[in-house]
Design goal:
single chain; about 300 residues; 6-stranded parallel β-sheet; 3-stranded parallel β-sheet; about 40% helix
Length: about 300
C-alpha cells in the first residue's frame, strides 16, 4: 500500500477489524454505504493528487487512508460487510459527464453490489443524457455543486431536477459549504431548487456541513430530503466544523432519512471510526440500525 496512512487489516491501529463487530453487534446483515467513490483510474489519480496537495477546495492536510488499486478497494469494502455501495462520480467542466456515466455503467455491470451511479453538469444536452441514464437503470445520481462550481438553479438544469423528481431516484448532492465554501454552496441555492421541485429525493452529502442546522430544517420541511453522514461527527471534521450538540435530538426526528456514508476510499482515518462516531451520538441502537442499513435498504430496494 502506497498511501500516507497505514491502515491495519488486523483490527489494531485504525480498527478495520472492528467494522464487522460493529454491525454484527447491532444484529444487521451488513452495511449500506451511500457515499463511496469509484472512478476511472486516471480521474481517481487526479483526485488523490489534489488531496495530496491540499488543493483550494480541500484546505488542509488530507492523507488518503485507502489508497489501493480498484480490485483491492472492492475487496476491502466487501470485507467490511458493505452489501451495497455507490460509485460517486462528478464532472468539473462540460463534456465530462457523459464519459463518466459510461464508465460508471460499465463498472456497475461488472460490480453487482454497486448501485449504478450517474452524474450531470449544466450543459447542452444534459436533460437528454440524464433521461438516457434513467432509462438505462441508474439508481442514484451525484451532483457536486462545490467542485462543479455551478448554480443548481441554472435554468438548463430545471428539466433535469424535474425528471429526477418524477422518477424518484435519489440524488446525492454536495451542496454544503464544507470543507471550503464555493460560489453556489450553502442552503439557499438548493432550497430554491426544492421550492420548485419539492418531490426531489435529495440526499444532502456530509449532513450539509457546516450548515447542519439549515439542512436539518430543509429535511423537516421536505419529507423526501435525506441526509448522509459522510465524514460528519468524525474527529477530523469536528475540529473544524463541529455538529452542534444541542441539535443532536433533531437527528431522531429525521431518523428514517439519515443514511450512512463514508467517502471511502478518500478518508484520512480508518473506516471503523466513521461508524463508531455514530454510536458516540448516543441516539440508540434502533437509530443506528436504520442509519447503517435499514434506511438505505428501503431507499434502494436492497434485500
Amino acid at each position: 500500500m502506497s498511501g500516507l496512512v497505514a491502515v491495519d487489516r488486523d483490527g489494531d491501529g485504525d480498527g478495520d477489524g472492528r467494522v464487522g463487530e460493529f454491525w454484527r453487534g447491532l444484529g444487521l446483515p451488513g452495511l449500506i454505504d451511500v457515499h463511496t467513490h469509484f472512478m476511472p483510474e486516471r480521474v481517481m489519480a487526479k483526485v488523490w493528487a489534489y488531496f495530496d496537495a491540499a488543493g483550494p477546495l480541500v484546505g488542509r492536510h488530507w492523507p488518503i487512508a485507502y489508497r489501493l488499486e480498484e480490485d483491492e478497494r472492492l475487496a476491502v469494502l466487501r470485507g467490511f460487510g458493505v452489501r451495497a455501495f455507490t460509485s460517486m462520480i462528478y464532472p468539473h467542466k462540460p463534456g465530462m459527464a457523459r464519459w463518466l456515466n459510461g464508465w460508471a455503467a460499465d463498472f456497475a455491470a461488472r460490480t453487482p453490489d454497486c448501485l449504478r451511479t450517474a452524474t450531470f453538469f449544466p450543459e447542452d444536452g444534459v436533460a437528454a443524457y440524464v433521461a438516457e441514464e434513467l432509462a438505462g437503470g441508474a439508481r442514484v445520481f451525484k451532483a457536486h455543486v462545490q467542485v462543479g462550481g455551478y448554480d443548481p438553479t441554472d435554468p438548463v438544469l430545471d428539466p433535469v431536477w424535474g425528471v429526477l423528481a418524477e422518477a424518484g431516484v435519489p440524488i446525492v448532492v454536495h451542496c454544503g459549504s464544507g470543507p471550503v465554501p464555493g460560489k453556489h454552496t450553502g442552503p439557499e441555492p438548493i432550497a430554491r431548487v426544492l421550492a420548485r421541485h419539492p418531490r426531489l429525493r435529495l440526499v444532502v452529502a456530509h449532513m450539509g456541513m457546516p450548515e447542519y442546522v439549515d439542512f436539518l430544517e430543509l429535511a423537516a420541511r421536505y419529507p423526501r430530503v435525506c441526509l448522509d453522514t459522510t465524514m460528519a461527527f468524525t474527529d477530523f471534521v469536528e475540529q473544524a466544523a463541529p455538529f452542534p450538540r444541542a441539535e443532536r435530538g433533531r437527528l431522531l426526528d429525521v431518523g428514517d432519512r439519515v443514511l450512512f456514508g463514508s467517502d471511502f476510499p478518500n478518508i484520512p482515518y480508518g473506516y471503523a471510526h466513521a461508524l463508531e462516531v455514530l454510536a458516540r451520538l448516543e441516539l440508540g441502537e434502533a437509530w443506528l440500525r436504520a442509519v447503517c442499513y435499514g434506511n438505505g435498504a428501503r431507499l434502494f430496494g436492497v434485500g
